[in-house]
Amino acid sequence: MYLIWESFWSLSVDIGIYILFGLLAAGVLHQLISERWIQKHLGADTHGSVYKAALFGAPLPLCSCSVIPFAASLRRNGASKGATLSFLISTPITGIDSILATFGMFGWVFTLYRVFTSVVIAIVAGMLMNMFEPKEVLKKGFSFTATAPKVAPISKPEIKKPFSIVAVFEYGLITLLGSFSKPLFWGLLIGAFISAAIPSNLHELFNDNRFLGYLIAVAIAAPMYVCATASLPIAASLIIAGVSPGAAFIFLSAGPATNTVTMGVVKSMLGTRALVIYLSVISIGSIAFGASIDWLFTSFSIPMSVDMHEHHGVISEIAAVLMLGLIGWHLIRDRFQKNTKNCGGGSCCS
Q: Of 9, 271, 279, 334, which has the fewest Cβ atoms less than 10 A away?
């Protein structure tokens, strides 16, 4: 039990600063990008919106948890399910900081391959989402589709509100965090349990059978929290220990792209069908591209350079305390509001 709670705290420290950054950045995004722009570029259930979401998300320096507030903001403002899913996948796998770090650690071939495959996986998932999600359900999911033509015609100019720091904090820390605080909390608990159960000699399991190594890599990476940049030292250490570049690539692809936290949010925000597509495309795509890069590196004898470094500090711990405090506040508030609603606000609620 102690190991689980230790892992819970460690995981909170790892993701706290990214979650808070993502919340505030989403608040800024909400202020700067209009609802009409999102509806125009990402709202339609077309392939174009999926392409734009994947390309728009790839360079953003957001991890698999800080991307959640961004995606929630896009979805709340009218982005289609396909575009939202595409954004959720392409953004955390790469990022300008991770791209540069990958180049320094593994070389330009591996770096370009990682960026290219992240966009491909995201586009495939988004297209499948739009194909298998019935259009009438998609339209029903958007609050603006039925009311926007009556309330705000296209010809009517949109009223732009002045930028407000208070509104950034209010939207990010209250509105958005409140919308996924419960799945975030449970994701932290499940992720902590998984982290505590992972064996320390993990790399030895990959050496006997390469394909089995691929399966083990995706099975461990998928539910685990690890951001795009922080995953690089782990992948490098796996390669140094004798794991193939393909298995390390799978870890770099499936690890940042998904975790237990994001799984819960995807199911809550986009539905069970989206979660199935999300996990299937990431798993199958990561294994296929991992096997391909092993073939590529073996056939053309491409060398890989490996350099490693780590970071952590008191700021991350403060961010973790703040994040957990906000989550606890939202959970207590939701519980109190539910109790108040059940008893009609009478004396039983006092």
A: 334
Within 10 A of 241 (CB to CB), how many other CB atoms are there?
14
Residue 253, C-beta contacts closer than 8 angstroms, at least 6 positions apart: 93, 114, 117, 118, 121, 221, 282, 285, 286, 289, 290
Average pLDDT over the chain, rounded to an integer: 76
- Token reading at 50: 């999926």
Contact 192, 11 (CB under 8 A): yes
- CA 142 from chain centre, in angstroms, equals 22
Distance from C-alpha of 102 to C-alpha of 174, rounded to nearest angstrom: 35
Query: pLDDT band at residue 258, thresholds of 50, 70 and 90?
Result: confident
Evaluate whether 146 touches 231 at the Cβ level (below 8 Å).
no
Q: In this predicted model, what pLDDT tens digit does every residue of 93-133 receive, in sequence order? A: 876 666 776 777 777 888 889 899 999 999 999 999 988 87
| Residue 114 Cα distances to 46, 67, 236, 254, angstroms | 25, 18, 14, 11
Residue among 115, 134, 153, 122 at smallest CA distance from 50: 122
Residue 79 CA: distances (Å) to CA of 36, 118, 214, 265: 10, 20, 34, 16
